[in-house]
Design brief:
heterodimer, A: mainly alpha, Sodium/glucose cotransporter, 22 helices, B: mainly alpha, rod-shaped
């Protein structure tokens, strides 16, 4: 591969993101601007920004790679990533916006009137955020290694530095514009190559005949029921608890706008995911050797150059590299914004200066982890973060929004149960990868049993602590569910 | 009777500002008959109690709506996947070199997601409109 294309594309995306970010800085003045863009972002902008923030390395590179590697089981990832937003719409979007809190820990404290519940939530948010940034940095390492020939650490370091500077300088107002821009960049960067490839491959002989490229044994009729159900539980419910997703909802003007935004997000994601899927299908037919070489996640980056030689192929390659970098930058910066919000409010007094320090800190911890570990498949790593989130923050959020009987003891007990069980399963699963084949699926996809257990413990512990129901629970639930237009009647 | 006199009496006073348009919206007939007397009879009872009942019923109806939509989505998806899995001819029908079963699984669930989302937003807004018309009648 021509390294100059790689450098040009990466620099172009970084410069464009910085320009939009600093343009946004001119309208970013107060603390409120920094945290939630003063809640004045319109639904289409906001939906594009949510899409831009959400579509990470796992979506841009990981899904196509996993389709190439494992077959149609990988198609459940984009389905789950999209349907997660449906669950968000049904149970969380409008109430969360109406809660008026800045971050998930703010929500916990306001709902449960407990500093300890807040501290546990903050810790979980930070852990989730860090582990979600790690695959982004590993994706950047892969992209830089494949496209420029530089060592892997250069890619991780570049993304961490760019994100720290962008977030510390501009806050969320500018991030909203950057994210919206990056959604459309990512969509274009996959859609154009797919369309061109589909036109061109008519004249190219596939590497494998259709029957071998899409064997029935890897097809939809060979469904692993437990793994699929467990993955769906993780993705559908994990989306509800992702810190960078939630913080984005505070930028809607009201609950109704939050719902409208979420439906637009569903449309944007549905359109987007057609293209990684198409890339995966093309890869199975035309580049099956990548699965064997261990670089399946690089399929999207390599396929255009392989199938279309000459300047058109170079141009398409530059485009997908730019899109991939947009994916790493946007997801990481969204996560860093929400982490910095939590850290600065809990530890540094909530000032703009504290936010900047926290932004730099939350970029560099995941960098250390990313440099110290090997990537185990981008889509899979992100899937595990979803399972952890679904087992910890999701029960607390859902019950907090819909059940007045939730107490701070119940919430803490449930969050800790979910964290210990799913954390142990995830680490145990990676250690016991060959030792115990019988329980492997339960460790590698734990959400189907850890989420119900976490909910059960939360409910039982709250029931045992009836006097612990916060005195303001009714008033808070009223605030969450009563439409803004009718609030004046409540006095 | 006093109910009718009350509305009739208040109408001319309210006529010039834009509010009357809100007052003639749909759920009014049933709502007025069942709720207004409670508000008038319980002169000393704090109206916030009645509002509390309305709020709880709003929360219940929104939760019921969300659960029905979620279950509907999951059941429909499961049936769709089952239908693909038990139809072996879909594995052998190739469209542009890809088996139909793969294409259906890769594309088919998204329209369902958007449809359920759209239906939910309208139904949730209806629930809220009903709540508003109840509380504004008082």
């Amino acid at each position: 591969m021509n390294a100059a294309i790689g450098y040009a594309a990466i620099v172009a995306v970084a410069v464009a993101s910085a320009l939009i970010g600093f343009y946004g800085l001119r309208v970013s003045r107060t603390t409120s601007d920094f945290y939630v863009a003063s809640r004045t972002v319109r639904p289409w902008w906001n939906a594009s920004a949510i899409g831009g923030e959400y579509l990470s390395a796992a979506s841009f590179l990981g899904i196509a790679g996993l389709i190439l590697l494992t077959g149609s089981a990988a198609l459940w990832f984009p389905i789950g990533y999209t349907a997660g937003y449906l669950m968000l719409l049904l149970f969380v979007a409008a109430p969360l916006r109406r809660s008026g809190a800045y971050t998930i820990p703010d929500f916990t404290e306001a709902r449960l009137e407990s500093v300890w519940a807040r501290r546990v939530t903050s810790t979980l948010v930070i852990v989730i955020g860090w582990f979600y940034i790690v695959p982004q940095l590993q994706g950047a390492a892969l992209t830089v290694r494949i496209t420029t020939g530089l060592p892997s650490w250069a890619g991780s370091l570049a993304v961490a530095v760019i994100v720290a500077v962008l977030v510390a300088a501009g806050g969320m107002r500018s991030i909203t514009f950057v994210q919206a821009f990056q959604f459309w960049l990512k969509l274009t960067a996959l859609a154009v190559p797919v369309v061109v490839l589909l036109i061109m491959v008519g004249g190219i002989e596939p590497a494998l005949p259709p029957g071998e490229a899409f064997p029935i044994a890897a097809g939809p009729s060979d469904l692993d029921v437990y793994r699929t159900v467990s993955l769906m539980v993780a993705l559908l419910l994990g989306t509800l608890g992702l810190p960078h997703v939630l913080v984005r909802f505070y930028t809607n003007p009201d609950g109704t706008a939050a719902r409208r935004t979420t439906v637009i997000v569903l449309v944007l994601l549905s359109v987007f995911y057609l293209f990684p899927t198409a890339f995966g299908f093309l890869g199975r037919a035309f580049a099956p050797d990548l699965a064997a070489s261990g670089d399946a996640d690089a399929l999207v980056l390599l396929l255009p150059g392989r199938l279309i030689p000459g300047p058109i192929g170079d141009l398409l390659t530059a485009l997908v590299i730019a899109g991939a970098f947009a994916a790493f930058l946007s997801t990481s910066s969204g996560l860093v914004v929400s982490l910095a919000g939590v850290i600065s409010q809990d530890l540094l007094g909530g000032s703009v200066r504290g936010f900047r320090i926290a932004a730099i800190a939350s970029s560099f911890v995941p960098l250390v982890v990313a440099l110290a570990t090997e990537s185990a498949g981008l889509a899979g790593s992100v899937g595990l973060v979803f399972a952890f989130t679904a087992s910890t923050l999701c029960p607390m959020l859902l019950l907090g929004i819909w059940w007045r009987g939730l107490t701070s003891r119940g919430a803490i007990a449930g969050m800790l149960t979910g964290a210990v069980l799913s954390g142990a399963a995830i680490f145990g699963g990676s250690l016991l990868s060959t030792a115990a084949p019988g329980i492997r699926p339960f460790l590698e996809q734990p959400a189907a049993w850890t989420v119900p257990l976490a909910v059960l413990i939360t409910v039982l512990a709250s029931r045992a602590d009836r006097r612990g129901v916060p005195r303001g629970a009714d008033a808070f639930l009223t605030r969450l569910h009563v439409p803004e237009a009718a609030r004046r009647h409540l006095g | 009777m006093s109910d009718g006199a009350e509305t009739a009496g208040s109408r001319p006073a309210d006529a010039p500002p834009p509010r009357p348009r809100v007052r003639v919206t749909a759920p009014r007939a049933g709502a007025a008959a069942s709720t207004r007397p409670i508000g008038l009879v319980g002169t000393e009872a704090p109206t916030s109690d009645i509002r509390g009942v309305y709020v709880r019923s709003l929360i219940r109806s929104q939760l019921r709506l969300g659960v029905v939509m979620a279950v509907g989505f999951v059941v429909a998806t499961a049936l769709f996947v089952l239908a693909i899995a038990v139809a072996p001819e879909l594995d052998e029908t190739f469209v542009a070199g890809v088996p139909l079963s793969w294409l259906l699984l890769g594309i088919g669930v998204y329209p369902l997601t958007i449809t359920v989302g759209g239906l939910y937003v309208r139904a949730a807004a209806r629930n809220e409109a009903r709540y508003r018309s109840l509380t504004e009648d008082e």
